[in-house]
Amino acid sequence: MKPIHTSVRRSSIVVGLLTIACGSGFETELDSEIGTMSAALSSSAVYEVKGVHSNKCMDIDGASTQNGANVQIWSCLGNGAQQFKFEDMGGGWYRIRNVNSGKCLDVYNWSTSAGGDVRQWDCHTGNNQQWTVEESGGQYHFINRHSGKALDVAGWSTSDGGNIQQWDWLNNNTQKFYVTQVGGGGGGGGGGGNGDAVGILADHGFNYARIRVLPAPPGNYGLHQDQNYVVEVCKTARSHGMKVLLDFFYSNWWADPQQQNIPHGWSGSSDDISYHTWQVLNAMKNASGCGLPDMVQIGNEVNSGMLWPAGQITWNPNNFSNFVARANVGYDTVKGFSSSIKVMIHYAGAKGNGFDAPWWYGAYMSAGGKVDVFGLSYYPMWHGPISNVVNALNSLSSRGKDMYIVETATHFTTSPAGYSSGYPQTKQGQYNYLYDLTNQVKNINRFKGIFYWGATWAQTDQWLDAPAWTDDTWARALFDSPSGSTATLNMAADAMLNAGGLSVRGVDVSEARYAQQHGVIYAD
């Protein structure tokens, strides 16, 4: 961490009446005697704000992302709920935006009274969200443009949860703060800033965010992605110029070739699928800053169907009909929102020299299954050499559909589970794998892009509620995972961009928001 640098302008001594022009057209006179200097804050940097009296950090209550959430003090945790950007509004006024929620400090209900509450709210250009930032002796205070009152810790509190409000400027230590830069400010084009995993990845050329959604996730084993969570991640991705791929699990647990459990309270009927799909898409459509996804997966790794046993594919003889009926309902529900949304059916694997996937898609389509794009999971430690997925894609290209590798990953350090991919388990080995994969698939007819899975699965000791023996994913992330430090981006994040030739460079960011809320600080 490094202290911010203040402006070289000479401080001005203000004696007697300090007059502050207020946006509502009146002036407020403050009796004060202070020596101050306007602070030059970088709009692309990220800052921690700590009370001089309390020695606690400004914090959004409960790491909330909702309008009206309270601004308070709390023991410093170093997470996104305690990190802020100062956005220069011109004329010496700043808007203070929380990194985690993307919302701004707001004098609630446009109060001009001492004791008026300060909360977070959708950012706008009103004067009740604009503040002066003044420095004296390394300590900072903030005066609101609308009310002319100072940011203040109520009642001289030093307790977690102490309220932050506005009050008449008194020049005391409950109205003074240390402001320390903890990330960002170094360029990067997209303005992601340290702490914001999605922004960092966007700065490195990732242009498509994949997000899973579950009807009622259990809250452990990395599964937290309900409808509201997904909307907020979508907003973050959109703010960094990324497209969105929404991955419907239709399960409250991991959905893959070994398990496709019906959610509690569901029968596995087509009505369940239609209602849940409509509900999530409607929420995204109506959420400012999100909107409908660009692409949707109906099910995740549906090799043997989904919603078992109701929508399970049976073998010997092969019967896709129960699965196709349900997948088609999902497809039609998506298209009811917009015909331009591409619908993906997702198959895991490229075994048998890569010919299992083309056979499976052929059987699905022959049974009447609807699909716009094919999506494959390909992991070298489980599915063999890159030549297997190349064979699969070359064979599938004749079916007239765009194609993606929608999941892939390999290790940057020794696999805790003992997996091997044929590449060294080092950061250079991880880079070489992703670079080689890109080069070998990018020129295949109708191949569009690669999505990296588990990219932000870092520092799991801070957020993953699961036995340690179950967690091999952290060793495949695109961020290093030293406990107690920042999670720093690995060189492999640049591999797809450096190899060139892909219109879609995707990344699954499903767990990033939850990890940030629980103390992980991502860094470039």
Report on this model:
The chain has helices at residues 197-203, 227-239, 270-286, 321-337, 356-366, 380-383, 386-396, 427-441, 495-499, 512-517, and strands spanning 2-3, 12-21, 27-38, 45-51, 57-60, 71-74, 84-90, 93-98, 104-107, 118-121, 131-136, 139-144, 150-153, 164-167, 177-184, 208-213, 243-248, 295-298, 305-306, 311-312, 342-348, 373-377, 402-407, 447-452, 487-488, 504-508, 522-523. With 524 residues, the chain is α/β, with parallel strands linked by helices. It has two domains: 2-184, Trefoil (Acidic Fibroblast Growth Factor, subunit A) (Trefoil), CATH 2.80.10.50; 197-523, TIM Barrel. The protein has an eight-stranded parallel β-barrel with strand order 16-17-18-21-22-23-24-26. Strands 2, 3, 7, 8, 11 and 12 form a six-stranded antiparallel sheet that branches. Strands 1-15-4 form a three-stranded antiparallel sheet, with no helix packed on it. Helix 2 links the parallel strand 16 and strand 17 (243-248). Helix 5 (356-366) runs parallel beside helix 7 (386-396) and helix 7 (386-396) packs parallel to helix 8. It starts with a strand and ends with a strand.
